[in-house]
């Protein structure tokens, strides 16, 4: 970039990152994903800065870039993948049903009734504000 455009870009991004991060967090619901989305947006903005800096409403232009980046990400198959620290355990109902000599549905219904009875005996949960 030339003619002070890079300084304008840095000044704009420095001022707008907190607002962009809040918008990204509202969209993603996750701080890490929001940071990634903002990083992607400001990188794309750097490449398009000559066009963006002369836009009538640069804030709307950049917000549109961020939202479109989010929508594009949601369309990708990998965005549906959830990573876990360890593999989730398979449901043991069928194993229990085989041991007890009954159906999986019977095990589920008895388990549900048993948990409901325990909940009635326990004091109500107290929610701790975060």
> What is the CATH class designation of the largest domain?
Mainly Alpha
Distance between the termini: 46 Å
User: Fraction of residues in helices?
Assistant: 55-70%
Count all strands and give the number: 0
Tally of separate domains: 2
- Mean pLDDT across every amino acid position: 87
- Ranges where pLDDT stays below 50 over 5 or more residues in a row are none
What is the ordering of alpha helices and beta strands? HHHHHH
CATH architecture of the largest domain: Orthogonal Bundle
Number of helices: 6
The CATH topology of the largest domain corresponds to Rna Polymerase Sigma Factor, Chain: A
Structure description:
The protein has 6 helices and no strands. It is mainly alpha-helical. The protein folds into 2 domains: about 5-80, Rna Polymerase Sigma Factor, Chain: A; about 90-125. The longest helix has 24 residues, at about 5-30. It comes from Actinoplanes lutulentus. Belongs to the sigma-70 factor family. ECF subfamily. InterPro entries: RNA_pol_sigma-70-like, RNA_pol_sigma70_r2, RNA_pol_sigma70_r4, RNA_pol_sigma_r2, RNA_pol_sigma_r3/r4-like, WH-like_DNA-bd_sf.
Quick synopsis:
The chain is mostly helical and 130 residues long.
Topology:
Elements: H1 5-28, H2 31-47, H3 49-52, H4 58-75, H5 93-100, H6 104-121
Helix pairs in contact: 1-2, 1-4, 2-4, 5-6
List the defining traits of the structure above.
mainly alpha; Rna Polymerase Sigma Factor, Chain: A; 130 residues; 2 domains
């Amino acid at each position: 970039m030339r003619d002070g455009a890079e300084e304008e870009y840095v000044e704009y991004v420095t001022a707008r990152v907190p607002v962009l991060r809040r918008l990204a967090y509202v969209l993603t619901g996750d701080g890490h994903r929001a940071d990634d989305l903002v990083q992607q947006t400001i990188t794309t903005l750097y490449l398009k800065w000559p066009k963006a800096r002369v836009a009538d409403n640069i804030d709307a232009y950049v917000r549109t870039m961020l939202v479109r980046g989010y929508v594009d990400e949601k369309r990708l198959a990998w965005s549906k993948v959830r990573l876990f620290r360890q593999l989730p355990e398979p449901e043991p109902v069928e194993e229990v049903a085989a041991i007890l000599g009954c159906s999986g549905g019977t095990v589920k219904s008895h388990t549900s009734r048993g948990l409901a009875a325990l909940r009635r005996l326990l004091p109500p949960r107290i929610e701790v504000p975060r």
